[in-house]
Amino acid sequence: MRILDAHQHFWDLSANYLPWLADKPVNFRYGNYDAIKRNYMPEDLRADAAEFELVGSVFIETEWNPEDPAGEVAWVAGVRDTSGLPSVMVAQAWLDRADAPDVLAGHGRTSFVRGIRHKPKAAAAPTDVMKGAPGSMGDPAWRRGYALLAPNGLSFDLQTPWWHLAEAADLVQAFPETQLILNHTGLPADRSDEGLAGWREAMRILARNSNAAVKISGLGQRGQRWSADANRGVVLDTIDIFGIDRCMFASNFPVDSLVGDYRTIFSGFAEIVSDLPAAEQEKLFLGNAARIYRIDLEERS
Predict the structure, then answer these.
(1) What are phi and psi of 196, to 5 degrees?
(2) Which of 94, 86, 93 is nearest to 54 (CA)?
(3) What whole-number distance in Å separates Cα of residue 194 and Cα of residue 204?
(4) Over 50: is that where the pLDDT of 301 sits?
(5) Which of 104, 163, 173 has its CA nearest to residue 136?
(6) Which of 18, 19, 119, 278 has the lowest CB atom count within 10 Å?
(7) Hey, CA dihedral for 162, 160, 8, 105, is it positive or negative?
(8) How many angstroms separate the Cα of 105 from the Cα of each of 11, 109, 174, 181, 271?
(9) Which CATH class for the 2-300 domain?
């Protein structure tokens, strides 16, 4: 199986300052994450993916020192030069900060940076959503930064709970020239009937907009090992809602190594979509990520 991993991370904890890995632990959705407080580099990803043909990857910002977003880009440039991975990068930027114009302009001038990720402020529950909250997708200051993405040739990776997807739909409608890629399947952590019904409706609201795509990843559940049976419904619902051409599979490694090994996750994806035509499977595992993140696989070979 040929894979273009659409969402992965590298870090060298001796050289990089990642506050969430180096300082006081954060409240993480998978629970304890001590097991990933170790270096993770291209040779580790290749070893984890050894049973597959890994043709490229998309590096997603790692919550590097927020005072130095350009530092992560420079570090990734060196990693690419020595290892050939990642293919491209989604960099850090803080859209509501005064330095956003300069940071985004720098990212836009970097040949392998395709977009940015800035996790907007999120409510803890659907009932707590406050329209226009500072730091949210409705915050005017945040949107001023978002408006600078398209002029700099940048897409946007969105990581937020599903109950903020109506705000995301409003965002992509207001900025139709900007490609938005939803991370981690909209975070359907609540697998109750009520929780999944809310998630599906929110995903439908976002999917009505052609400039929104989704990465099927990050499907682990606290205290459970990753399995195809546990995630089949979510995967198939996502494909049904967004359509084959706007979905892509990703590992979220090394983070999702907390819930399953690489083989289990990608073999699980393959099992779930085994009834689809081969051409559609190729889009999910490789083609869509190459198109959406503008990766020339021949150039990187």
Answers:
(1) -70, -35
(2) 86
(3) 16
(4) no
(5) 163
(6) 278
(7) positive
(8) 24, 6, 21, 20, 42
(9) alpha beta
Task: Give 204-213 pLDDT, tens digit per residue.
Answer: 999 999 999 9
Please give the Cα distance from 268 to 132 (Å, whole number): 39
pLDDT at 299 over 80: no
pLDDT in tens, 238-253: 999 999 999 999 999 9
The 3-state secondary structure of 3-39, one letter per residue: EEEEEECCECCCCCCCHHHHCCCCCCCCCCCHHHCCC
Residue with tokens 């969105």: 158
Count of positions (residues) in the chain: 301
Using CA atoms, how far apart are residues 252 and 184, in angstroms rounded to an integer?
8
Encoding tokens for residue 8?
């992965």
Instruction: Tell me which residue has tokens 């590097």.
Output: 64
Q: Where are the domains of the chain?
A: 2-300
Residue 111's contacts (CB-CB under 8 Å, 6 or more residues apart) are none
% the chain with pLDDT above 90: 98
Question: Structure tokens of 141?
Answer: 């200051």
The answer to whether the predicted template modeling score (pTM) of the entire model surpasses 0.90 is yes
Residue keyed to tokens 């998630």: 199
